[in-house]
Amino acid sequence: MKNFIRVLRAEKGWSQAELAERVQVSRNSINAIENGRFDPSLPLAFKIADAFKLSVEEVFDKTDV
Amino acid sequence: MTTLNTRKLARCALWISPVIIVPVAFFAATPWLAEQPDALTLSVAAAAALFVMAYSLFLSARVNRRLDEVQVAGQRFSSTWGMTVGSVAAVIVMMIPPLMNALADAALRLGTESPEEAVKLGITIGFMLVVVLQLIGTGAISFWWTQRLGKSSE
Predict the structure, then answer these.
(1) What mean pLDDT is predicted for residues B110-119?
(2) How far is B132 from A32, CA to CA, in rounded Å?
């Protein structure tokens, strides 16, 4: 699933490790989700969206589902 | 970063080492075991096999404790395929005549009292081989999964 995590991270100036720490997963996991290699569960998607203070739809591209 | 990775690898190797050390020690002790009564030899072989299996279970439970969902998916994938690959590898290894002969020879050397004891030991050694190969297979697939997901385009 496509997402805008990379862009949103860049806007916030966060590294993958920083975002990983905020949502309590590993940096590798953030990397896998960001590159579309792994689709997160709904709770994790909400956690990531919460970290950016956005809705899930604003972080993940539902047109690709 | 390199030091951190080296430290991580060293810790990982340390945790995995008993699964390698025990079978190696068992085979290294073959000459001594051959001179012991079959009951003792069988007990040592069974203890070694049980230890390897129990420790593998303990390791997998410990590793699973602190995993996030991406890592859990990786573990599930690697354990499913690792078990299969390990079992297939064990069958293939047993089909290679010199290796099969070496295993049979080890069982015969240890079970000196009767052919029945040798067969029992052969089965025990075979089980240990399967478990070790499954562990290696799971580790290799887990490593591949981590590398695949970890590939950064950052």
Answers:
(1) 75
(2) 30
- Total domains in chain B come to 1
Contact by Cβ (8 Å): B72, B145: no
Q: Do B150 and A6 touch (CB under 8 A)?
A: no
ipTM above 0.85, yes or no: no
Of B72, B64, B59, nearest in space to B136 by CA: B59
Rounded CA-CA distance B138/B81 in Å is 7
Look at chain A and report how many structural domains it folds into: 1
Q: Which residues span the domain enclosing A52?
A: 5-57
A25 located within any domain: yes
Does B146 sit within 8 Å of A28, measured CB to CB? yes
Closest approach of chain A CAs to the CA of B100, in angstroms? 41
**pLDDT (tens digit per residue) in B89-106:** 988 888 888 888 888 888
Is residue B11 situated within a structural domain? Answer: no
Confirm or reject contact between B148 and chain A (CB < 8 A): yes
Determine if the pTM surpasses 0.80.
no
| Inside any domain, residue B72 | yes
Residue A39 lies in a domain: yes
- Tens digit of each residue's pLDDT (9 = 90 or more) over B55-81: 988 887 887 777 888 888 888 888 889
